[in-house]
TrEMBL record:
PANTHER family listed in its UniProt record: ACETYLORNITHINE AMINOTRANSFERASE, MITOCHONDRIAL, AMINOTRANSFERASE CLASS III
Reaction catalyzed: (S)-3-amino-2-methylpropanoate + 2-oxoglutarate = 2-methyl-3-oxopropanoate + L-glutamate; 4-aminobutanoate + 2-oxoglutarate = succinate semialdehyde + L-glutamate
Pathways involved: Amino-acid degradation; 4-aminobutanoate degradation
Any one GO molecular-function label of the UniProt entry: pyridoxal phosphate binding
Species whose genome carries this gene: Streptomyces malaysiensis
Protein name in the entry: (S)-3-amino-2-methylpropionate transaminase
UniProt-listed Pfam families: Aminotran_3
Assigned EC number: 2.6.1.19, 2.6.1.22
Co-factor requirement: pyridoxal 5'-phosphate
Similarity section: Belongs to the class-III pyridoxal-phosphate-dependent aminotransferase family.
Record keywords: Aminotransferase, Pyridoxal phosphate, Transferase
Length: 419
C-alpha cells in the first residue's frame, strides 16, 4: 500500500473535504473554524464565489500560456492590478509559483545586479525550503539540517526580538543594528554584500513584528553601502497585517518585494517586484520556470485583489485583528504559561513559556491539539515550535472571532491543566 511520506504527517487529524469562508468541513462530519487559512494563503476565505468563478471561467478559456512564449489577458490584468498597490517605483514584476522560488528570484537578481556574493539574513527568518531559500532560513534547524552543504554566502545578523531577549523594543533595535554594523565591518564587508532580506513580521520564526527603527536602519545602511533591501512579504502581504503590505506599518521602501501566499487565494502564484532598472539586470533565461504566472492562478489573483479592495478586507483585517488580539490578551492575562501575545493585524500569536520563561513546545502542542477538539484549527511556529499562531482569512467577522476566542480559551484551559 502506498502512503504519504512521514514528512507529510498533518498537524491535525482533520480530513478537509470542503471549505467555505473561514470554515472547513471534515470527513468526520464536523465543521471546523479554520484559523490557519492554508498557512495564510486563503486570504479571501475558502472558495470565495468570485475567485471560484474567475478560476472556473479561465479553466475553460486558457489554462496555461507560458509567459516567455505568449502574453495572456489574466497576466496583463494582474500586472495592472498590482500596479495599484505596489510601492512607488516598484513597477517591474516577475512571477513564480511558490514563496521559495520567488525568494530565490530575488536573491539571483540581487547578485546579478550588484555583482556581490553575500546575502545577509536575520536570526529567526524563514524564506523557504529549496536549498538556497533554506540556506537563508534560520527559524529552526528542522528547516536546514541533514542536506548540507547549504548555499554559501549567507551571513546571519540579529532581529530585534525584544521579548526573547528580555528587552524593550528600543534596546533590541539598537542591539540588532549595532550587530549589523559589526557584521558589515568584520564578516561581510559592503563590497561583498548584495542584499539583506527580512520579513516585516517574522513568520515561521514566531510572529515577531520588526520595529520601525530596525527597518529604517536597514534602509539607511543599504543606501550607504550600496546593497539592496529585500522585503519578504510572502506571509505579511495582501492585507494580512491590517495594511496592504506589512512594511506599510514601518514606512520603509524596499528595493525588491517578494509576494506569494494570499495573492491568489490558494492558487500557486508568487512573484517579485522591483524597479525596471533593477529588474533589467537579470538577463533572459536566468529567472523563471515553466509554470510561472499560470493563467488560472493569475485570474484567481485578479479576483482576489478585486475582492480585497471591494470588500475592504485590509480594514477588516485591522479591525478583526484588534478584536482577536484583545481576546488573546485577556486569556494570556490569566494564563502564566502564555508569556507574550504579539503580531500585527490578523497575524497573531501566543508564546508558551515555562515558569522560568523558557520556550515550552510541549504545552503549545497540547493547546493546539485541544483546540482541534474544540473545533478550531491552529498552527505552531517559533524556533522551538512553542508559539501558537492565528491567521484567519481576511473575511473573518466578529462572530467567527468570538467563536475562535471561546474555543481558544477552552483549549488553553485544557492544554495547561496538568502543566
Ligand atoms: N517566505 C516566507 C516569509 C514564508 O512565510 C514562506 C512560507 N511559509 C516562504 C517564504 C516559503 O514559501 P513556500 O512555502 O510557498 O515556498
Amino acid at each position: 500500500m502506498t502512503n504519504l511520506s512521514p514528512q507529510l504527517r498533518q498537524a491535525t487529524p482533520v480530513v478537509a473535504v470542503r471549505g467555505e469562508g473561514v470554515h472547513v468541513d471534515g470527513e468526520d462530519g464536523r465543521r471546523y473554524l479554520d484559523f490557519t487559512a492554508g498557512i495564510g494563503v486563503t486570504s479571501t476565505g475558502h472558495c470565495h464565489p468570485r475567485v471560484v468563478a474567475a478560476a472556473q471561467e479561465q479553466v475553460g478559456t486558457l489554462i496555461h500560456g507560458q509567459y516567455t512564449t505568449v502574453m495572456h489577458p489574466p497576466l496583463r490584468r494582474l500586472v495592472e492590478k498590482l500596479g495599484e498597490v505596489l510601492p512607488a517605483g516598484l513597477d517591474s514584476l516577475f512571477f513564480t509559483n511558490s514563496g521559495s522560488e520567488a525568494v530565490e528570484s530575488a536573491l539571483r537578481l540581487a547578485r546579478q545586479a550588484t555583482g556581490r556574493p553575500n546575502v545577509l539574513v536575520c536570526h529567526g527568518g524563514f524564506h523557504g525550503r529549496t536549498v538556497a531559500a533554506a540556506s537563508m532560513t534560520t527559524s529552526g534547524t528542522r528547516f536546514r539540517s541533514g542536506f548540507s552543504p547549504l548555499m554559501s554566502g549567507v551571513v546571519v545578523t540579529p532581529f530585534p526580538t525584544a521579548y526573547r531577549y528580555g528587552w524593550d523594543e528600543e534596546t533590541a533595535t539598537r542591539f540588532a543594528l549595532r550587530e549589523l554594523d559589526y557584521v558589515l565591518q568584520t564578516i561581510s564587508p559592503p563590497d561583498d554584500t548584495a542584499a539583506i532580506i527580512v520579513e516585516p513580521v517574522l513568520g515561521e520564526g514566531g510572529y515577531v513584528p520588526a520595529t520601525e527603527g530596525f527597518l529604517q536602519g536597514l534602509r539607511e545602511r543599504a543606501d550607504r553601502h550600496g546593497f539592496l533591501l529585500i522585503l519578504d512579504e510572502v506571509q505579511t502581504g495582501v492585507g494580512r497585517t491590517g495594511r496592504f503590505w506589512g512594511h506599510d506599518h514601518f514606512g520603509v521602501h524596499p528595493d525588491i518585494l517578494v509576494t506569494a501566499k494570499g495573492l491568489a487565494s490558494g492558487f500557486p502564484l508568487s512573484g517579485i517586484a522591483a524597479s525596471e532598472e533593477l529588474m533589467s539586470k537579470a538577463w533572459p533565461g536566468s529567472q523563471g520556470g515553466t509554470y510561472g504566472a499560470n493563467a488560472v492562478a493569475c485570474a484567481a489573483a485578479v479576483a482576489t485583489l478585486d475582492v480585497v479592495r471591494e470588500e475592504n478586507l485590509v480594514a477588516n483585517a485591522e479591525a478583526m485583528g484588534a478584536r482577536l488580539r484583545g481576546g488573546l490578551e485577556e486569556v494570556a492575562a490569566k494564563t502564566p504559561a502564555i508569556g507574550d501575545v504579539r503580531g500585527l493585524g490578523l497575524m497573531l500569536a501566543s508564546e508558551f513559556v515555562t515558569e522560568e520563561g523558557e520556550p515550552d513546545p510541549a504545552t503549545a502542542a497540547r493547546v493546539q491539539r485541544a483546540a482541534v477538539d474544540e473545533g478550531l484549527l491552529l498552527l505552531l511556529c517559533g524556533a522551538w515550535n512553542h508559539v501558537v499562531r492565528m491567521i484567519p482569512a481576511l473575511v473573518v467577522d466578529e462572530a467567527a472571532i468570538d467563536e475562535g476566542l471561546r474555543a481558544w480559551s477552552a483549549a488553553v484551559t485544557a492544554g495547561t491543566a496538568d502543566s
